[in-house]
Amino acid sequence: MAKKTDKPNYVHSIQNRKARFEYQILDTIVCGIELLGSEVKSVRLGKASLNESFAVINRGEVWLENMQITPYEHNTLDKLEPKRSRRLLLHREEIRRLQMKISEKGLTLIPLRAFFTDRGILKVELALAKGKKLYDKRETLKSRENERQLQQLKKNF
For residues 88 and 138, what is the distance between their CA atoms, to the nearest angstrom? Predict the structure, then answer.
């Protein structure tokens, strides 16, 4: 009988948890991402972060900036920068629609999460977002605290 090999624990999705607190999400869109070489293996192992990342539209293409992907440790061929710009794969019409919304209302594109599909393809969920003011963030914290207290009261009774 053959021995079972230990497979590494793969991560199914990477979240940008601060995005929902810092921004008001207006619309979301799922797109592909263009990665080089061993970056996919590194993302599968969970060595990626979407914190402080954002998307920019430049010359009809959407680029993801500041996404941290730690280089794969077993890679010997090419050394890639961890925070290089990565192209997002969208249709031309989707890019035009996003461009119009961003230019009109002063909105921004923020990645919410990166996840693998059933076929093993890495996708990024982009959000069209508007930055929250300080008082909006305080309201969010108050509503969360009130919700927690209600749950505790229901649990006790």
Answer: 33
**How many angstroms separate the CA atoms of 24 and 1, rounded?**
55
Partners of 55 in the β-ladder: 64, 109
Neighbours of 78 (CB within 10 A): 9
The residue type at 27: D
At 56, the pLDDT band (50, 70, 90 cuts) reads very high
DSSP summary character for residue 132: P
Q: Is 33 exposed, middle or buried (0-12, 13-18, 19+ CB in 10 A)?
A: buried
Q: Which two tokens stand for residue 78?
A: 């090419």
Q: Write down the CATH superfamily of domain 13-156.
A: Small protein B (2.40.280.10)
User: pTM score, two decimals?
Assistant: 0.78
21, 35 contact by CB (below 8 A): no
